Structure formats: structure tokens, C-alpha cells
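User: Working on a comparison across species. This one is Cation transporter from Ruegeria haliotis. Can you predict its structure so I can line it up against the others?
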Amino acid sequence: MTTPNPNRRKQLEGRSLIMAMWGNLFMAAAGIVAGVLSNSNAIMMDGLFSLIGFGSAFLGRRISFRLDAGPDKLRPFGYAADEAIFSTFRSLSLLGLVLFAITNAIKNIYSYLNGIMPEPLNFAPMFVYFALIGATCVLLWAFHHFTWRRTGRNSSILRLEAKAALFDGLITAAAGVGLAAIYLFRDGPLAPVAPVGDSIIVLVLCLLAIGSYVRDFWGGLGELASVSASPEHLASARRALRATISDDGGALRDMSVTKQGRAFLVTVYYDPRRPVTAAEMDALNLRMIRDARTALTEADVFLMITEHPRRWPDAINPNQDNP
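Assistant: Here's the predicted structure for Cation transporter from Ruegeria haliotis:
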């Protein structure tokens, strides 16, 4: 699928995030109302997840419109890091909500084991809620996933929104199945756990989800810390620039690749091995950018003219105590 131009990509991404905002706002309101009417912590937690989804879609839309703004006086390296900041702190907020839900579920179960009976569940509002929210989650996931593919499969914002919609749908489906089982067997084999059935479901689902959010958080944190991109990305950049470096006749001393959101920064430590002009190096840098983008979408190349790799040799390193 052909990647659309930047303006069209922003339009598609913005439209998808508007859908996410309204969809999550509807699910949040439905979850809170249904949670109150049914006395279900599982449904209330589902609504709170959706409320965070509304806020993240709102912020994500604002961020997506300025990712291509380029360097300026305020942001000399551009705005690409905003996407990594968004992904990191959204994952952190979801982790906080998951930990809160786990704590609340454990407290309810502990109170029940000590003889304190929770309010009985009202199952009547639940069936309508699960049907509406399940359908909404599927539609949101499909819309985000389709837009993510149309925009070149490189938007961390859309990927995270699609993942969140899919996971929200799975949580809704699992909670619905679990609560339906409790309803059907509340006078049978599940009678001992029926009063805290929704707390048990919340606990299990949160424990299954927490690993995914931890990985997203550490991945975003690594991008913010400028940790090297994967070896596959580095190999792709080397292959893409090999012909340009060979044609110019210089020596590649080192190369690094970092990733922030959808953007890659390829740093090339290059020794021309001859006198050069600024215009020649500008032309070389621009050719490297074009070549790098054939392998890594949204790549930029920082060409550093040097006879050394990324770390100064110890003999001349200013951070070393040299005689």
C-alpha cells in the first residue's frame, strides 16, 4: 500500500483519533453508568479505561499535527520525540489504573474473606452494556488498524490506539463471559465466589494486561533515552547507505540508529579522506537522507565529518585524565 503524502496522512490520522475520542467518551459514560447501576467494579474499571482513552486520543491528535514541524528555536531537534513521550506516559497512566484496580480488587476479596459482604450485583444492565461496548471496541480497532495500514504502518499513536481498543474489547468480552458464568451458576458451583466474582475477574484481567503495558512503557522510555534501535534497523540503514558511501569514496567510521516514535535518526560518522566543501557535504547528506528513507520511513541523517567513531579514543578523550 502506497504511503500517502504528509498532509493526507495527518488528515487520516486526525480523523481516526476523533473517532477514538468520541468512541471512548461514549464507552466511559456507559461504563460508569452501568457500573453504578449494576454495582460491578469490573464494569466501572472498564469505563475508567475508556476515560483515559478519550484523554489520550485528544492529546494524540494534537501531537500528530506537529510531528513534521521540523527544528525551530524552541525544539532544535524537531518534534518527533513527542510521539515517544505520548506513548510512554499513556502506558504509565494505564499501568497506574491497572495497579489501582488490582489493589481495589484485592481489598474487596480480603474484606469478603473476613466476613464483609459486598453489595449484590445487578445483572440486568450488564447484558446491554457488554453488547454495545463490545461492538464499539471492534469498530474502533478496525478503524484504527485500517488507518494505521493506510498511513504506512509507522504511527506509534495509531498502533497504540488500535491495541488499546482491541484489549478493551477483550476485557469487555472476558468480563461479560465471567459475569455471565457467575450469574448462571450463582446458586451452584460458583456460589462461594459469586459475591466477589467481578473482583476476581478484574484481578485476573489486570494481571494478564500488566505485562503488555510494562513493555510499552519501557519501550517508550528507551526511545526517550535515545537507546539504539534494533539491530534490524541498523542493518537496514547500513545497506541503504552503502552505495552512497562507496560512490563518494570516503570511509564510514561508525553509524548509529535511534528511534523516537515513528522517526529514525541515523548518525553517520564519516571521513571523506580528502578536502571537501560544505556544499559537497550538504549534497552528500541529502542523498543519504533520500537513501535512508527507502529503508526506514521518516528517517533523518546526521552526517558528522570526523576521523573517529562515536567515542573519542582514550588518548585524546577530554573525559579521560591524559598526560
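For your comparison, note: The domain at 6-224 is CATH 1.20.1510.10 (Alpha-lytic protease prodomain-like).

User: Helpful, thanks.
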